């Protein structure tokens, strides 16, 4: 079955209505382990997909005609296991979660560097060996009956004091293996929902960004993580939390997220 077999060489399709963008992305990703083709519209992408089954599709969100979200929906209907990365110049959580709800692997906001692109593709390669579902592993305990999340990226829980606690989704690390270092924001920093608030480095020194699920001001950072990175894997919803935030528009932000039930 074409959907079940996963050849060693990653077959990638890049979709963007601007030819220079397609060529630039293809030049970054083309190597002996990956073959890259391009399409200049959603319509062309879907036609190509009928002839060639791709392992990964990287598509711009906003395109004339068939949009990136429509490409995503059609691909997921044909082959749910095909990974899709959305490239967007509008990195709001609403568009990001909308695409992730529809099955996107992740989104990459413009502008991005070649290394940003390589890193997220590396996560795709690693995640093809794991089961990507939204339920929490029963072996991982949580302290609240309900969490909200950006699937496979970050979670947030509302605290009794009106603050919120933010941490890493336990499946994020499954795509990169053990974390070797982490960069966290400073107390007092103001971060908008959908922006990067932390950077995790894997053992190969590749950087991977975490997206902030709620807008607000950082009021506390978990310093214990710096001394014991294993907490991210062992207790991602407990002692492995990352930051505490004073939210500015909590109700609207939570409505944009998915509920993650233990």
UniProtKB/TrEMBL annotation:
Task: Locate the 4-aspartylphosphate modifications and list their residues.
Answer: 60
Alphabetically list the UniProt keywords.
Answer: Phosphoprotein, Transcription, Transcription regulation
Task: Please give the biological process terms from Gene Ontology that the record holds.
Answer: phosphorelay signal transduction system
All residue ranges annotated as the Response regulatory domain in the record: 11-125
Looking up Pfam families in the UniProt record yields: GCV_H, Response_reg
Q: Give the matching SMART domains.
A: REC (SM00448)
Task: Provide the transmembrane region boundaries.
Answer: none
What the entry lists under CDD domains is as follows: GCS_H (cd06848)
Task: List the protein's name.
Answer: Response regulatory domain-containing protein
Q: Which organism is it from?
A: Candidatus Edwardsbacteria bacterium GWF2_54_11
């Amino acid at each position: 079955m074409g959907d079940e077999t996963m050849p060693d060489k990653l077959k990638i399709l890049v979709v963007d209505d601007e030819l220079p963008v397609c060529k630039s992305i293809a030049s970054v990703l083309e190597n002996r382990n990956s073959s890259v083709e391009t399409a200049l519209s959603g319509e062309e992408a879907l036609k190509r997909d009928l002839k060639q089954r791709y392992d990964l599709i990287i598509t711009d969100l906003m395109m004339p005609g068939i949009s990136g979200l429509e490409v995503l929906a059609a691909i997921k209907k044909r082959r749910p296991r095909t990974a899709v990365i959305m490239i967007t110049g509008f990195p709001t959580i609403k568009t990001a979660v909308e695409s992730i709800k529809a099955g996107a692997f992740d989104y990459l906001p413009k502008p991005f560097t070649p290394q940003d692109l390589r890193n997220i593709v590396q996560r795709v390669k690693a995640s093809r060996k794991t089961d990507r579902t939204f339920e929490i592993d029963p072996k991982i305990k949580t302290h609240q009956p309900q969490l909200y999340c950006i699937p496979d990226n970050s979670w947030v829980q509302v605290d009794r004091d009106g603050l919120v606690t933010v941490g890493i989704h336990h499946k994020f690390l499954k795509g990169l293996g053990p974390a070797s270092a982490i960069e966290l924001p400073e107390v007092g920093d103001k971060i908008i929902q959908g922006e990067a608030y932390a950077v995790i480095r894997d053992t190969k020194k590749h950087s991977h960004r975490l997206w902030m699920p709620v807008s607000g001001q950082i009021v506390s950072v978990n310093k214990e993580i710096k001394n014991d990175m294993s907490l991210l894997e062992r207790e991602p919803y407990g002692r492995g939390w990352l930051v505490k935030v004073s939210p500015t528009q909590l109700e609207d932000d939570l409505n944009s997220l998915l509920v993650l039930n233990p």
